[in-house]
Amino acid sequence: xxxxxxxxxxxxxxxxxxxxxxxxxxxxxxxxxxxxxxxxxxxxxxxxxxxxxxxxxxxxxxxxxxxxxxxxxxxxxxxxxxxxxxxxxxxxxxxxxxxxxxxxxxxxxxxxxxxxxxxxxxxxxxxxxxxxxxxxxxxxxxxxxxxxxxxxxxxxxxxxxxxxxxxxxxxxxxxxxxxxxxxxxxxxxxxxxxxxxxxxxxxxxxxxxxxxxxxxxxxxxxxxxxxxxxxxxxxxxxxxxxxxxxxxxxxxxxxxxxxxxxxxxxxxxxxxxxxxxxxxxxxxxxxxxxxxxxxxxxxxxxxxxxxxxxxxxxxxxxxxxxxxxxxxxxxxxxxxxxxxxxxxxxxxxxxxxxxxxxxxxxxxxxxxxxxxxxxxxxxxxxxxxxxxxxxxxxxxxxxxxxxxxxxxxxxxxxxxxxxxxxxxxxxxxxxxxxxxxxxxxxxxxxxxxxxxxxxxxxxxxxxxxxxxxxxxxxxxxxxxxxxxxxxxxxxxxxxxxxxxxxxxxxxxxxxxxxxxxxxxxxxxxxxxxxxxxxxxxxxxxxxxxxxxxxxxxxxxxxxxxxxxxxxxxxxxxxxxxxxxxxxxxxxxxxxxxxxxxxxxxxxxxxxxxxxxxxxxxxxxxxxxxxxxxxx
Length: 631
Known about the structure:
This protein has helices at about 10-20, 50-60, 90-95, 100-105, 160-190, 195-220, 225-235, 250-255, 405-410, 485-495, 525-530, 545-550, 555-630, and strands at about 10, 35-40, 130, 135-140, 145, 275-285, 295-300, 305-310, 310-315, 320-325, 335-340, 345-350, 365-375, 380-390, 395-400, 415-420, 425-430, 440, 450-460, 465-470. With about 625 residues, the chain is of the alpha+beta class. α6 crosses α7.
């Protein structure tokens, strides 16, 4: 069986006791070197039967070892100074499963299977893998030796050149794994504030990634890796290439500027066709003026820049696209224009002019394409006005609204209205009267002074104007490209006065005061009405009533009372008249003082207003001169 360590090693107290009995030196018990001592085989202490059995099992191993009471494993064998003991170390140096050291290994912390309860006090404790760097070996949690994988260990029978190549490859693999972990760590530190070195480390990490990609591509595609790679995946970013373009005009070569970079793009077959484009449009909030309908704008959409004429509209609740003369101030609107077709959700940028001294913000509006259409859905409101010529109960003859019988036939059944709110309907055209007269019926009798109108919606035609920006075909660049100018700019350049339409001028409305007849309610109807709704105006009497004719004769006592009341009322009226005169005089004086103060304030107000208008005039004149110079 396995020998017990207690049968070989004894504590310091037992060693001291045995030393004292033999008359050895007392100082030996105080020495730290004699903490453990081998028990002398010649001495026979009192032991139990189990100790005796273990001791007999160990006697075969220690048959040649003769130890004294004061002997220790640290004594030099055959040394006279140590007592002349001959100690053999061969028993402790043996190796194998049945050696002395293996028999007592379970009694120490570093040996034995502690998980199975053979060593220690049975506590479960587990260890991770560890590596002995001096010996170059790796151990598992149970102490087993972990052998390296076949990829890390060089196979046998390799030459020196093959071994060097294998080691270099393994070193490169380990370095790449380390670089990946290191680069990921450094990339995560780029966004941290105060890390000045993080940016340079991030750039170095990207360079290493690029070098690794180039190396992998070279290994994958071989010697002609670049050509074969281009053959598979095409031209990538950062590669110089030569492009052949057919159909280039000669003006492009003549006006080519090498210092200006060119952007080459491609178009789908659909984008080469032209049509109507409807987009969501909004004036830029930094642009000072609103945009007018049918004024030319330069659009930048996709790869193209071109000038066209947009028409603005807004979508009503019933789905009608109503024409707008100007863009809203702070809202989106719809814009329809003619140009090359582009996919929906494409961004739009609009500019009024490309050249000249443009004051303020250059970008006029932005938007996004909604849909492509072959026809326009924009409609404009039109009111047709007519006047009645003859009226018969609820029927009337209307003239001045249409010009011919054909137009009347187109509008048969259309609803019409009067200014007073009476609704009606167009019936049939009539031959008498001026051409275009028709018969109409209303829900009540109208008057000759009423105006009849008909609300209609007419489609708005989109002008098919498309002028691409050919600034690259002109030597002077954008200055050499000729674009359409808006009407306002032409008025300023040619100093032409603005045309005034007399019908567009607002005039004060003068209406004659109309006198209506009194309401006449028939007696039969009035009799059925309640008393509160009946007419209560009394008619004028031709003769005086009895109450007005009779005379009142007062007695003497009543005359005295009446005279006293007349005197009191006379005094009160006199005081009231004097007070009224005094108030009038006081108001006159106050009006004079207020007039003097207002005169002084008006003089200062006029001076301040004159200075303000003078400064505004100078600013406007400077802006106008600057704009003319830029144009």
